[in-house]
Specification:
This protein is of the alpha/beta class and 319 residues long. Helix content is 41%, strand content 17%. The chain contains twelve helices and nine strands. The strands form two sheets. Strands 5-4-3-6-7-9-8 form a seven-stranded mixed β-sheet, with helices on both faces. A two-stranded antiparallel ribbon has the order 1-2. β1 (77-80) and β2 form a beta hairpin. α1 (5-16) packs across α2. It starts with a helix and ends with a strand. The mean pLDDT is 93.
Length: 319
């Protein structure tokens, strides 16, 4: 039976009430994607009929959402920093709070370029996932024309997951103009392991959104139907992919096990006067900063859009 936009929206929202904290928003995003309409156009064309093919896709999508699959995985798209990124269940869905990491990264990169205009900066996006942090940073530098092409940094996007890097590569090809794609390379590596084997690389700026959620919190998130990859969430994992243990053989539950491995490695691969910007949870940002201080970094914590502690800035001390 033919349905209008208005009829489908009303029925779909009622179906999702018990399955989603934002049923109306979910339905609107799915409809905008399927019908190729803006939110305003959905209202203006509310009495227009939906084609059979579009209706079939929408009904299937509502069932997927009821099963717990996030809208971004259903559409395969998620906006981040004003850019449309491809996503899949192999990567973490980009979050608005992570945009503060890009903003702070851009500020530091511009300061370094202005201080050394003839040097070529090197930037690492560790645990890159979809590539959203590194790609958004480079795109912003290109589109805002704040620097000459020759001054654009070279970016290295690193992830342990080959499936994640495939999504990152898709986003590079989709979003970065072809003449700038050579400024980005993708490397599969368990943190900096690969770089220790190939002669070592150093970076002027390291941007990273590593897994930092305590193991028990990950279980709760996944039970809620978040359906994002545990590999990108669980911070209580050691370098071998097992539960991290303390000196007494007890399982660590603070979400900082990966960060405890990441920071010392990052220090080795950080250029003199280099800076690390690392996203953490508001509940463990201060503890992460203390770990950095123990490694002789100067630290500062930046707040996210909601005023929560979010990004730890670690600067190599000047000797």
């Amino acid at each position: 039976m033919t349905q209008t936009i208005q009829q489908f929206k009303k029925e779909a929202v009622s179906q999702l009430i018990d399955f989603s904290p934002s049923p109306q928003l979910d339905v609107e995003v799915l409809m905008q994607f399927a019908l190729n309409l803006t939110k305003t156009q959905l209202l203006l064309k509310s009495h227009n009929p939906i084609s059979e093919d579009q209706l079939q896709w929408l009904n299937s999508s509502i069932e997927k959402r009821k099963s717990g699959l996030p809208v971004a995985y259903i559409t395969g798209h998620k906006e981040f920093f004003g850019y449309d990124f491809a996503v899949s269940p192999a990567v973490l869905i980009p979050k608005p709070d992570t945009e503060i990491l890009v903003e702070q990264g851009l500020q530091i990169i511009m300061e370094k370029i202005n201080a050394h205009p003839n040097a070529t900066l090197t930037v690492c996006d560790m645990c890159t996932g979809s590539g959203c942090i590194g790609i958004a940073t480079l795109l912003s530098l290109i589109e805002n024309q704040k620097v000459a092409d020759a001054q654009l940094p070279k970016f290295t996007l690193i992830d342990i997951s080959g499936a994640a890097l495939e999504i990152a590569e898709e986003n590079v090809k989709k979003l970065i103009p072809s003449q700038y794609q050579s400024r980005i390379r993708l490397v599969q590596s368990n943190l900096f392991e690969q770089f220790s084997q190939d002669g070592g690389w150093t970076f002027d700026v390291i941007l990273t959104n590593p897994p930092y959620i305590p193991h028990k919190m990950v279980d709760s998130l996944l039970l809620d139907g978040r359906n994002e990859p545990r590999l990108a969430l669980d911070g209580d994992i050691n370098l071998f992919g097992d539960r991290a243990l303390d000196e007494n053989g007890l399982e660590i539950e603070d979400g900082l096990a990966i960060i405890r491995n990441l920071l010392p490695q990052a220090k080795v691969h950080l250029s003199p006067r280099g800076v690390i910007l690392m996203e953490t949870g508001e509940y463990n940002a201060k503890a992460a900063a203390l770990l950095a201080k123990d490694l002789d970094f100067s630290t500062k914590i930046h707040k996210d859009l909601e005023g929560q502690l979010r990004v730890v800035e670690c600067s190599a001390k000047i000797r």
